[in-house]
Amino acid sequence: MEFLQYTTFNSLAKFKDEWNRLVNFSASQVPFLTFEYLQAWWETRGGGEWPEDSELVLVAAFQDRHLVGVAPLFQAKNVQGKQALLFVGSFEVSDYLDFIVPPKDLPAFISGLLDFLKNAPGIPSWETLDLFNLLGDTPTIKLLKAEAERRGWLFNQFHLQPAPYIPLQGDFQAYLAGIKKKQRHEIRRKVRNLEQHLAKGELYITQDVHQLDSDIDTFIEMMAQDPNKREFLTDEMRKHLHSTAQTAFQHNWLQLAFLTLDGNKAAANMSFIWDNRLWLYNSGWEWDYRDLSPGWILLTYLIQWATENNIEEFDFMRGDEPYKYKFGGIDRHVYRVILAKK
Fold this sequence. Notes:
342 residues, alpha+beta, 2 domains, 6-stranded mixed beta sheet
């Protein structure tokens, strides 16, 4: 493999289609690794999570002039104050990250990449390779550990969070039959409660580009009604959410869904539809409707929509919030890996 360094996304834009094809065959096939998503993340540094003077370190590997792997990295001081190379996308707003390489090429890629990062003259100074949000089943973790041991480098692995998901097989009734009786009863009770209030509940999904910005604003304002999210929604983070949603909409993998009650928007979920899976990114609701459990109702409608549209998996992504398990979530786990040179 030949490794080359790039310092802007524009300099790699001619390989954008090859990049995205690689994602489809990589060890981690997730929307957060697409060229468009990571470029949008970099433009706002994750909604202001990282300083503007962070340095982009995109490393691409080629064989016979074909792109075979990408390490989307940047250099900044990590949370421990050390000069580090981190994944573009780290770490608050991108649930899953990884190198963009098919598993068969991953051993040679990681070995060559570590040599390149250590020896190439244009690489910014770094002490640690600090990699957040690796899924537990990615072969990247074991390969990094083996390479660190071979080189005499320090290796540490930390559990970050569970990331529950629901496998979907069959129709909505099959889904309900597969969760615990108590939770099935609770879902049905909340739907009946809505019907008894004579409110007409409907699922509305943003499809009109002229409505997109307004719907994103509505979604963000719903998020902001949650005291735990209000402080998170800085001006920079609002800009990031707009940019991410617009990018996903342009490439047909945004699902911005609302529960409407008698025509009024009562709850919202921003998700991605990608690789025949639904990835639930964030949510909000109008607190004036909280007695009707609009978040639960919308999630119920979304799962039913997913079963009717041949979605194979509903991914709640990172976090152990109780509602994810009440809807039948099964845990997988996300890790942070640190390699330190000696």
